[in-house]
Design goal:
By secondary structure, the chain is an alpha+beta fold. 37% of the residues lie in helices and 19% in strands. The longest helix has 24 residues, at 334-357. The structure holds adenosine-5'-diphosphate and magnesium ion.
Length: 627
């Protein structure tokens, strides 16, 4: 049958362009990627052969073989792993399966390849072969199948697939026709060096077959996590993390632990030092692989690590689970549940230590993963007491991050709640009108900018008996706070309230806005702004409502309360006009404009853009005429 020509998925072509431009010095990693795939392929077959032993009956020794051919300028990397059927070949080596990766490639490509080192941040995987090869030939046979297949490409937009009579009995052989400038990868010592550097942890032998036919095992060939800690270097841990976690940074934290007792397992877990690009993927999958007595079982064991620790990478190797366990029942397995509980405890314990002993380092972790860890406050009721002290926040009172304990220690006399404001972005929140009065009185407000914040706050309610209170909801009497140091303006305002002018203004505003707001009242949370919106005590907080609306969880918006700053020059002038009784129109127009202004400060659109524009123009005309 003739070879069939197929086009790469667009993202793959983009990726190949980037790969072709990538840094010269980085290209040796192609070997790590191909060995990593070969090792995965052997892991997969080992697992399948638990239930189908005939698959490996003839050749039970898994290995990866490197065969340089100096004359032909070819390097061959072969394995006796699971191999690929035709469809798998087309799918796996023609597309990018993970949607997150595809999206990332798009972004990289838009970057115009300005920053080729970015390539180091995610797995280029198989396609990295084109960094050193003009042409790549993959010959493969799926274990247990009769037909073998060959895939050939020069990395220029398309590949061919055809039947192969010379396919290995099982597994995959990848032949690279090395580029002119890549002949170094024919040298035995060069290859040995790369394998030791990047692939020493690979749990099966990587064998170099030299021209004369003599064989050399290049790596230690035992699963890294089974070795004693004292014999593992930081570099080896890092390389293993790259392999297992598809990470390309250095791990922020490495936890290697052997548990003996009621349950026996070894865990080697990493916390990345940078945020993986698919951290907020809805699948919330953690990158922790499950092994049973050194045999790979799955990298999608849902119950092993809770979603709110999904930034973890690594392996768990259980001594207790049966080898023939079905992947489908793992989630409810009591052994898995026990391991999960132990892992959670251990990880949180280590985070606590870091938070106490190395706060700056911990802050870096928090910036990356705090938003994920906080999901645990919502989901894992039993972990709240442990998680709350680990949480860090931006705040109006300090640079950087602060913890709740520190917040409480800074609370003002008479303050009985932890004040916060929730929204999209901390810097914008810090400038919110609703925060002004708190700042003026030295009362600290936490700035909550993660989507999960509103939810865990509802679920948790309080910290050390101090309830969380939103500064954008309900009536808050600030005059009781701050140990009596009331801003001077407050007294002025009170005088004017006495003479009734402000009362009159409020009454006119209420009348003008009767249909659109729940109430209009004087505020003590404003200093610079003239107005702001707050939610009524009995309603949802405004940001929460906006979020729920976005996700179609609620379809109505509750009416808000418009608060008016009694000390603002504009408000006082309006109050004067209102008292004269003659300017009813003007006051009503001003009420509408101020309401829209308050909405804008919330990041909400004005209600009627045309009407808003007309009113604004009128005000400007008037002020120009007056000037
Ligand atoms: P990743 O390893 O991150 O999945 P790669 O680009 O390295 O991405 O590989 C893509 C896919 O191709 C693998 O997931 C695997 O299914 C398949 N593959 C690659 N190399 C081999 C191999 N030697 N044997 C079997 N399958 C392979
Ligand atoms: Mg790979």
């Amino acid at each position: 049958m003739a070879a069939e020509t197929l086009a790469f998925q667009a993202e793959v072509s983009k990726l190949l362009d980037i790969v072709a431009r990538s840094l010269y010095s980085e290209r040796e990693i192609f070997l790590r990627e191909l060995i990593s795939n070969a090792s995965d392929a052997c892991d997969k077959l080992r697992y399948e052969s638990i239930t189908r032993p005939e698959l490996t009956a003839e050749d039970a020794e898994f290995r990866i073989v490197l065969r340089p051919d100096a004359k032909a300028k070819m390097l061959e990397i072969s394995d006796n792993g699971i191999g690929m059927a035709r469809d798998e070949l087309v799918e796996n080596l023609g597309t990018i399966a993970r949607s997150g990766t595809a999206a990332f490639v798009d972004r990289l490509a838009e970057d115009g390849g300005e920053s080729p080192s970015l390539i180091g941040q995610f797995g280029v995987g198989f396609y990295s072969a084109f960094m050193v090869a003009d042409e790549v030939r993959v010959t493969t046979r799926r274990a247990g199948e009769t037909q073998g297949w060959r895939w050939i490409s020069d990395g220029q937009g398309a590949f061919t697939v055809e039947e192969a009579e010379d396919a290995p009995v099982r597994g995959t052989s990848i032949r690279l026709k090395l580029r002119k400038d890549a002949k170094e990868f024919l040298e035995a010592d060069r290859l040995a060096g790369i394998v030791r550097r990047y692939s020493d942890h690979v749990a099966l032998p990587v064998v170099l077959v030299e021209d004369g036919g003599e064989e050399r095992v290049l790596n230690t060939a035992s699963a890294l996590w089974t070795r004693p800690k004292s014999e593992i270097t930081d570099e080896q841990y890092t390389e293993f993390y790259h392999h297992v976690g598809h990470g390309f940074d250095a791990p922020w934290l490495t936890l290697h632990n052997k548990a003996e007792g009621r349950i026996e397992y070894t865990s080697l877990l990493f916390v990345p030092s940078s945020r993986p690009f698919d951290l907020f993927d809805p699948a919330r999958r953690a990158g922790v692989k499950l092994y049973v007595r050194r045999i790979f079982i799955t990298d999608e064991c849902e119950g092993l690590v809770p979603g709110w620790l999904r930034f973890l990478r690594g392996v768990v190797d259980s001594e207790d689970l049966p080898l023939n366990i079905s992947r489908e029942t793992l989630q409810d397995n009591p052994v898995i549940a026990r391991i999960r509980n132990a892992l959670v405890k251990r990880v949180l314990g280590e985070l606590k230590k870091k938070a106490e002993k190395a706060p700056e380092d911990y802050a870096a972790f928090w910036e990356n993963f705090g938003g994920v860890l906080k999901e645990g406050l919502y989901e894992a009721g039993d972990q709240r007491e442990t998680l709350l002290p680990l949480a860090r926040f931006r705040s109006t009172a300090v640079e950087g991050l602060t913890g709740l304990g520190d917040y409480v220690s800074r609370m003002k006399e008479g303050q009985d709640a932890i004040f916060y404001i929730a929204g999209e972005e901390a810097d914008a929140l810090a400038r919110s009108p609703q925060v002004e009065g708190f700042r003026a009185r030295g009362v600290e407000v936490l700035l909550m900018a993660d989507p999960i914040d509103e939810f865990w706050i509802q679920a948790v309610g309080a910290f050390e008996d101090k309830p969380f209170r939103s500064v954008t909801r309900g009536d808050i009497d600030l005059s009781a706070l701050g140990g009596g140091e009331k801003p001077e303006a407050e007294t002025k305002a009170q005088e004017e309230t006495k003479d009734g002018k402000l009362d009159g203004l409020i009454a006119s505003f209420r009348l003008a806005l009767a249909d659109t707001v729940k109430d209009v009242r004087l505020s003590n949370r404003l200093t610079d702004s003239s107005v702001c919106l707050v939610a009524d005590d009995s309603d949802l907080d405004m940001h929460l409502e906006r979020m729920l609306k976005q996700h179609k969880q609620v379809d109505t918006t509750s009416k808000r309360i418009l608060e008016v700053n009694p000390d603002h020059a504009l408000i006082r002038a309006l109050a004067g006009k209102a008292a004269e009784g003659a300017a009813a129109d003007l006051v009503a127009e001003a009420a509408e404009l101020l309401l829209d202004q308050a909405r804008l400060a919330e990041g909400e659109p004005v209600r009627d853009a045309a009407a808003f524009g007309r009113r604004l123009a009128k005000v400007m005309e008037r002020s120009l005429a007056a000037g």
